[in-house]
Amino acid sequence: MGWSDAEAAARYHLRLMMGAGWFVNPKCRTMQQLRQDPVVQHEWKEYLHTQEVPAGVSRITWKRQIEEAKQWLTNVPGDTEMKMLCEVQMVLNEYSQARTAMHEIYKIVRVSSEEALHNEFAKYERAFRMQQNFLNDGDTAFKRACRDGDAAETEQLLHLSDIKDIQTGLRIACKHVRPACVRILLGPQQETQVCMCEVEMTM
Fold first, then answer.
1. Does some domain include residue 159?
2. Which of 79, 107, 165, 200 has the greatest CB tally within 10 Å of its CB?
3. Tens of pLDDT along 167-192?
């Protein structure tokens, strides 16, 4: 049914059509197939040690949530079809351009309070700060290896680094939860410290 002029104006004359459909990986349609896929298994196994902890969540809570999710993955029947309902929005190109241009202004107009306005835009500052910290943690080859969990590169560059660089690399490896790099940086004689560091990283 078409909109009246008043209805169209109230929606800024932006018309969109919504569609929904199931997304399924044709190679891994069931949980059993996902469990048998080596790439998927590697991602599940390393998830805790490769993902950044979300802002506002403690590491111990993050770890508990991941363990609960892994337990769920273990208990789901193997013949369960794994699929996700996805929404698609379709608009004319000129409408899409106008919508993009007014997106930030619309966010300001729709908020109900100063606090809501702050919360809406604070995430961009956090994202920018996280991106800058990520780049700073990788501004040398050694720091980048520690940040990205490249154990082989970390070990190779370790012998070319002074004590200050090693301490910085250790901090970065702990920050980004890279236990293999932490072991290398602490050395084979520091097993107790490694264990303590791993406990700290999981909290």
1. yes
2. 165
3. 999 999 988 888 889 999 998 654 44
Q: Which residues contact 197 (CB under 8 A, 6 or more apart)?
A: 174, 179, 182, 186
Total domains in the chain come to 2
Q: Is the dihedral of CA 35, 38, 39, 43 positive or negative?
A: positive
Q: What tens digit of pLDDT does each residue of 65-103 get?
A: 999 999 999 999 999 999 999 998 888 888 888 778 887
Q: Which two tokens stand for residue 107?
A: 């966010």
With respect to residue 183, please indicate whether it lies within any of the assigned structural domains.
yes
pLDDT exceeds cutoff 50 at 14: yes
CA distances from 96 to 3, 18, 19, 63, 71 (A): 19, 14, 16, 40, 42
Domain termination site, one of 67, 82, 97:
82
Q: Which domain holds residue 64?
A: 25-82
In a domain, 120, yes or no: no
Mean pLDDT of the chain: 84
Last residue of a domain, one of 82, 105, 120: 82
Whether 57 is in a domain gets the answer: yes
Q: Are 173 and 49 in contact, with CB atoms under 8 Å apart?
A: no
